[in-house]
Amino acid sequence: MASNLRSGDRNVYLIGSERHQITGCKLPSNRQVLSVLFYNLHEIKLSIRESANFVVRECLIFWEKARIPTKATPHCVEKIMKMYNYCRNLQKSACHRSETQEENERNFISDLNNLFDIAHANALEIIKIEEDRKFILSQREPGRRGCLMGIDMKLAKREERVLLRVIEQENRRAKAHHSSEIDDNFMDSSEESSGTEDISDQPGPSSNIAQSSLEENINEQIELRMGIVRGGGGHVS
């Protein structure tokens, strides 16, 4: 069944509702990152690392608009993976209501609406515009004070829907290729058991090739989207 392109109704313990995309006029929060990550895992059926890569690329749209240098993508992905694993450990220990567990949960929840900070280690030195420097400092405050202007959120939402449809189509193709490969193997086995002469047919595409095609298509579509929404931006305190 094709996954819904809207935010899911699934409620994730400690996080809240899943979301199919990051929205708003601030740099993404920890909650937004995790809610989209869980949506990709449950609805789009991506792996954890695929989902993390997808979310990082979406985050970078906002950071590029803010003109703030960021860490390299692999470091951003690892940051998401670490946050996800910590969240999952808390969820798995939820039935053990010790003081430590409850304190860890409170601390985790209190940080969810704060900035998912992927700024370059020397961002404040690299940034030359004082307005941009003040913006990242305000976003690092509790609740991420200030907002980012200039993002065409309607366009971003429309491109997100296109991207999700592409992912769904590629997932269906990958499953179809895998099913076809199983059928071919079954037919080959039947022919061998009945003594039929082997005919040298070319094998169907493997699931690995299909997965590679999926990842390339995702990256191409995200790069396209980033190019479309990229443009001038500004900040409001």
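Next protein, fold it too.
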Amino acid sequence: VRLVRRTIFTTRSIEEAEILPFSRVPLAPFPILSRPDLDVGAATTARPQRLQWRRRPVPRRRPACPHALPAGSYRSTQCRPPALPTSQGSASSPVQPESATLPSPRTQHRCPTHHRLTGSPKMSDGEELSDRQKREIAVWFLSNAPAGEIHYVAKDVRALLGDEAVYEAAAAEAFPEYNKAHLVSLELPDRSGDLIITTYGELDKNNYLDPRTAQVATVDHIKQNCTKLRPAADEELPSAYIEEFRSALDVELSKYICEAYPKGVCAVYCTSGKDIDGPGADFGLAAIISAARRSPQNFCNGSWRSIWTLEFNDGSQFVEIKGKIQVGAHYFEEGNVQLDTNIDCKDSTILQSPEDCAVSITNIIRHHESEYLSSLEESYLNLSDATFKDLRRKLPVTRSLFPWHNTLALSLTRDLAKELAIGK
């Protein structure tokens, strides 16, 4: 037992462990007592006592090789090279270079004398992350927050970081991308409507165009509100010919939103050809729909986002329609259940007058969104009977159905009585 304990608990590897006969194995203390990360009770030389284990913080260990660098350390030192033979055949003293090359973080340095790996890219236990790594982790958490919950996540991330500068850098990077990805809608300062944060209306980092009111709003991404409002310049707006198609589609789409999404908003942007003054050229529009329902007091939030790109081809007299619908939901009462699903749609219609095109395009959008919503509802109805049932084992290990009609046949007490003749 003492030999095994000496071999297992030694700080050295098993290949380097000194195997002693039983008569030469010392009774006290074992090499484990010299480990800096463990505090054990003293053992007497007459009879070893039970070791008392008490954890304490692990200090930075001294590397086994005197020339090796600790893991993650990149000081301007280098392991001493082995001695080289001279022309007379004698070994010369090792030469230490004046300026040593720093080891690459992605490469491992092998000490030729002690054969230990140093300069590993992996961080040792207790080593703190750099500010850049902390910022990247914080950005990931903020960007992947469920719909309408980024401020709750930001509060926890801020407390975990404990560094205001790192948090502000992460928030400045994550909040704009989150707002554009989730099509967050903000109320305009004059309460004339709602502004959708989207790349189609982005003029610069903080200024976004509202095509319905022909205004440009300055947005505070972190606070998620509009701070300033100004009239849009002429070069920021489409031509009168394009505006006819855009405004007609905006009117029809708003009617559909009022019917389908009580708290939804929509906007129509010109994506290409905004300077066209008449028929004979191609142009493009983008219809954005954003609806969110937030009920944190009931532990649930959800969002519906759809983007429809419209290509008006004057040559073929057709309008190509491509859409992407994204649905997200989060239910977190005594658990954490999230839904994140999307679907791509494609359709077309005939290029007509602005009013007729608007009605036709809106009907196509209504058809695809209603069809997708029906498919989601149908999948929910079959969730318990089909999906969850398929997760269970079809048959038990015996490969036979359980005899519910004769459960006494599998009585364990009856089988034991037969085998052991109990009760006779």
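About the second fold: The chain has eight helices and 14 strands.
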